[in-house]
Amino acid sequence: MPRTVDRPDRQFQIEEAVIDLAAESGFSAVTMRAVAGRISGSTTAITHYFDSRESLLRSAVRREMNRAREQIGLRNRDLDDPAALRAFVERTVLRPNERSDRFWLALVQGAGNENVLREELDGFNAWWDQQIRSRLIQLAPLQSMDSEVLADLLDVLVDGLIVAGFDDSAPWPNQRRQRLLNAVWRLLDI
Amino acid sequence: MPRTVDRPDRQFQIEEAVIDLAAESGFSAVTMRAVAGRISGSTTAITHYFDSRESLLRSAVRREMNRAREQIGLRNRDLDDPAALRAFVERTVLRPNERSDRFWLALVQGAGNENVLREELDGFNAWWDQQIRSRLIQLAPLQSMDSEVLADLLDVLVDGLIVAGFDDSAPWPNQRRQRLLNAVWRLLDI
């Protein structure tokens, strides 16, 4: 009896292999052949679902970004504005695992070389910036800092916290990230 | 008459090709063959100077890091402690060109996969941390923030400023980086 593979499951498995490979070695390591090797299949198993490397990358990256959006964007209806901003930033950088940080780093680097990655990253960033800026509108009048500069500071903190784990020989535990964010919230009086 | 190539010049050219390739596409793209192609030579032209890819990477990366140390570590004898700290951080992130930022990103990513990169990056970081911490000793008693947390904040700002340029579709100009740093110096009263 031939082994049957459920289509969504197999497609999901292929896309996860893309994210795993990118997180481990960067997007230049994500070839059709490498992905096929990862899922113990042939490249035909991939072209059955994706007609090009580009469409494969787009689908895999978009799924991963949508997952991140869902995690980060959770509503906190009962929080006041400063608490909602803090929670939003903290959900972005207090990560469940190293893979998501590694994927982010690979995506930022890969976006310099591959348009499909640039487009997906820009889409995510537009959403993230909009989320931050809409929350800052309420807070900015209370701040001594210009709201553009404050938005830049939050951007830089988020990128920096993700990268600092790789820059150091060991990833920063969430506790260390939280300690830094707490100090920043105090400084900013947020 | 055979063309003679001055040894240090040729070695320098090979090492620059390594940094160029890494900055453009990451260290996984730095193969002996790719480096040879870049200098319009054969792989033998490289193995004449370097007996392995590892020794090639180590030499090229160390030279680039030493160059960065020289630029960042310039003495400012006439500055007071806060001004010296500000100047040190600013020399780290107000970069002369995009290539040095791209190289840094590639190094941080590559350090997860290749021991030789991890070792060179750790060496640089140990130096950078020591420079920052020795400058903070004088300042920390004046700060409301714990000096460990302050050192973490400076680390994260530096990494974040370098990455934010790639995260966004266009690199951040030095002016935008300086604007953020100025705001941080005011917040910290440094």
Short description:
Chain A has 190 residues and is an all-alpha fold. The first copy, chain A, is 73% helix and 0% strand. The mean pLDDT of chain A is 88.
What does this protein structure show overall?
Two copies of one chain form a homodimer. Chain A has 190 residues and is mainly α. The first copy, chain A, contains nine helices and no strands. Chain A has helices at residues 7-25, 32-38, 43-47, 53-72, 81-93, 98-110, 115-139, 147-167, 174-188. In chain A, α7 crosses α8. The longest helix of chain A is centred in the last third of the chain and has 25 residues, at 115-139. At the A-B interface, α6, α7, α8 and α9 of A face α6, α7, α8 and α9 of B.
Task: State the assembly state of the protein chains.
Answer: homodimer
What gyration radius of chain A follows from the Cα positions, in whole Å? 19 Å
The tally of strands of chain A reads 0
Structural class of chain A: mainly alpha
- In whole angstroms, the N-to-C terminal distance of chain A is 63 Å
User: If you average the pLDDT of chain A, what whole number results?
Assistant: 88
User: Mind describing the biggest β-sheet of chain A?
Assistant: none
Helix content of chain A: over 70%
What is the succession of H and E elements of chain A?
HHHHHHHHH
* Largest contact between chains: A-B, 45 and 46 residues
Shape of chain A: elongated
How many DSSP helices of chain A?
A: 9
pLDDT < 50 stretches of chain A: none
Strand content of chain A: under 5%
